[in-house]
Amino acid sequence: MSLPSSTQAALGGIRVLDLTSVVFGPYASQILADYGADIIKIESPTGDSTRHTGPALEAGLSAIFLGINRNKRSVVLDLKQASAREALLALVDQADVFMHSVRPQKLARLGLDADTLCARNPRLVYAGLHGFGNKGAYEGRPAYDDTIQGLSGVADLMARQTGTPRYLPTIAADKTCGLIAAHAILAALFQRERSGQGQFVEIPMFEAMTSYTLVEHFYGRHLPGSGESAGYPRILTSWRKPYQTTDGFICIMPYTDAHWKRFFEGSGQEALAGDPRFKDISARTDHIDQLYQVVGIIMLQRSTQSWLDFCSQHEIPATRINSLDDLERDEHLRSVNFFTDVQDASNNTYRFTRNPVRMEKSQVVPAMPPKLGEHTREVLLQAGLSNQQLASMLATGAIRTHGPQDVSTAQAEHPVEHP
Known about the structure:
This protein is of the alpha/beta class. The protein has 19 helices and twelve strands.
């Protein structure tokens, strides 16, 4: 199965060789795929480990893999074999982006380092999605979401708020760094369009996640020598959480001086509106524990719906809590067609989220994530390899394909295209 042409999409015609796995890199390349890039997912013969993470209707298409690999093509290459490396180099010659999450030392031993590939294809954007930056003290160490959450201060933030070091219950480091990787690659592509030259781009997880964490939490450390500490108090207080009402919970966020004045006066707490501890944002920040504790007591006086009506009337930001299961039923998400169903060739139905970004002149409809090796023959034939080469590589295990289609049939359906 070939993906539909996306030449009218924002990244139509951009080809990305994606040697990443798990979540960090595949999330970044899925973002590029959602903008129309041709993502060729280069997998080992055993495939991305997330192919087997979670429930599945078909082996190799498990839940986590489905969430981060739509709109891609899969090519299986055993890069331990010279013929597979040569096939990859043929793909590099046609590529705009080469991205990987392999330790740089390992790729260098295979002759797939940035200097080598950028010399071969000067327009190539070579993106290294590393755990830690090159030439740093931790260079080359393995990195995973949990370890990066710990190193970048996230677990400490949770300890400050709850008393126990914890990870966020989402793959926060992988996904955050994936977003950063996607926009870094886009920036490099934009620069290449002006300069004509590609470049090496490094996206190290530790530095990226630390930068993300410290946006608000570097706080007083922006003022060296002042004695001020790191950590934004409003975010760290244990009282910052959904408030309990008489029949459930509500998320309410008075923020401006006007919000707080309307909240206190409208709820019958006029005295608190004039309380010097709560008079402005600086005072509220200094007394954030007392403020949120007081609000918690007030919120216990009404039902959730009553408070939602109150906040709507007084123009104070507030919402109910959506459970994970509620999201598919959320009236707004339904009204903007956020979820979409895709049926595969076996008549299995899969549900996906669409690209949350809408562009007036670019649209890519979600397509099924690829089966392992589904596009090996198609892609390599288009890169100029012959039937004989593919047959030899199949025999040695240098490549792997999916399905019964033979090489001669594949070439008839997908003639060789020379760049």
